[in-house]
Amino acid sequence: METTGIVRRPTAERVRDTLERLGAERDIWVSTAHPDHGPHQVPLWFLWDGRAVWMCTGAASATARNVRAEPRVRLALPDTSDVVLLQGVAECFPDREVPADAARAFTGKFGWDPRAEEGSFLYVRVVPGTVRAWRGEPELRGRVVMRDGAWLG
């Protein structure tokens, strides 16, 4: 791994950078697992509400099936040179039961309202318990920027 030019950021800076990316990014990788079907990974659009990640998927999708059976999930932003990994427990909301403010914010960000579609959708909310963030090998030490749901630094 090339490390030339990478300066180790203090934890507070990593937290700030992570929060900025969560607010600005569009896609997140969602990793789930089912006891009978094994692991599953898929990119989804997401919304960061300042405390939780909100995603939406078809109610009959493998992701929906998996989070209902095993709600522990891992999420990853797509840039491998500026890694952000989140881990938490998924909470599921059928499209007709999602909190209105979350649905409005999701629609506002993407210009798409799953509740208006013909099929059924499942909103998935993940409050991270652990967040790791690093840029290259010099930042591997101290990469945990959230522990037990509390930001560090």
Automatic annotation (TrEMBL):
Coiled coil feature spans: none
Record-level Gene Ontology MF annotations: coenzyme F420 binding; oxidoreductase activity, acting on the CH-CH group of donors
Origin: domain of life: Bacteria
Domain Pyridoxamine 5'-phosphate oxidase N-terminal: 24-131
Gene Ontology CC terms, in alphabetical order: cytosol
Keyword Metal-binding: no
Keyword annotations: Oxidoreductase
InterPro entries per record: F420H2_bilvrd_red/Heme_oxyg, Pyridox_Oxase_N, Split_barrel_FMN-bd
Name of the protein this chain belongs to: Pyridoxamine 5'-phosphate oxidase
